[in-house]
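Lab notebook page, bench 4
Experiment: in silico fold of construct C2
Operator: M.H.
Input chain length: 420 residues
Purpose: comparison with the prior construct
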Amino acid sequence: MDRHIPFDALHNFRDLGGYRTPDGRRIRPGRLYRADSLGKLQQGTEDWSRFLSLGIRTVIDLRHSWEIEKRGRIPDDASFGYHNLSIEHRPYNQPALPPDVDPGPYLAERYMEVAEDGTKELRRALELVADAAESGQPLVFHCASGKDRTGQLAALVLELLGIPDETIIEDYSLTELATDAMLAAWTAREGRAPTWLGFGRAPESVMRLFLAALKARYGSVENYVTKELSLDADALATTLRTHLLEPRPTTWPPLTYRKATPADAETLVRLRDTAALWQLARGIDQWKPGEKDETHFHTRMQQGEVWLTHAGNHLAGAWELWWDDPAAWGPRPADAGYIHRLMTTPHTAPPGTGREMLAQAESRILATGRPYARLDCLSSNPRLRAYYESAGYKVVGEQTAKDGGLGSPYAVTLLEKRLL
């Protein structure tokens, strides 16, 4: 499941459904959305029809009135109520920042200002979210890019729903998948590129620092909601969890597999970048968004195999299968297949998808008569090593300076499984 719902004019419209709580429940899909400016929607377009098809009954616009006057608001329609709640009272001049300013601490400080200043508007926004939850009707909230103000309200709602901080940080950083499109749209509209630092970027450090600062000052998000927003945080959380959470499914569509084609390269890049953001939100320093482009996947299809996994109609994962890997394993006879970039869709892939994809890759290797499946993982990632060991792989060595083509050698653990 790609959280970004495709629109022509909107680039950061996302469903918050599917995120899980520690007790195993998940947010119901199709009930809570976050977005960039809905002022870009126009009646009579495919975008407008797509928006109306979501059944949204409440729209919360978090922008300033002057932004609405300059860029427009969502068209009126009898199907939904519109609420303008400008939570930002101290506009900041990000374009004036010098290039040496770290956007993480800077933006986290601005978010704390909003938490202190926008209490009236944040209170009303949370009340509207609770009302929509009780009525069972979908709601969307948005600002200009769907990143800062939208990200702050999303963090409060997700915290009250009991979603772990690392998932909230991950959700914030998913704007990174829309940055290029938002940059292109801004440049086309203004006739020049934006000059300010980090336009459209949402590094995980911003939300991590904001949540830490909010909890350091108030003890918890619930205390903030009670003290500063004058809401009963326990009652609010109960309402949201009762109406927006559902048990995790007990049955899932069967997994299906197909070999990727060049037309799938864009999907594979997006899946890998999504997995990279998942890792970064959890402090795993392994993949970075943007490291692998479509050319990489075209090359892997030509020199080996790339496979996609679906659960029903939804993408669930992918992997690469190489027939040699000299960078990690050195010169070898043709006795193995090398599994790379085993990745699943965060939060939405059926349980056990990774293990089933491993087994499918191993069956492909066996079909060629090769007796071994091999793979490697960063030596600094013991969690991943343990995962592969639990799947029957044994550590057989270390490569202390693998050159993965990124210009910086790194150490990997080599793992092998005998198939014949």
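Observations: DSSP finds 15 helices and 14 strands in the chain. The chain has two domains: 14-246, 255-418.
Next step: discuss at group meeting.
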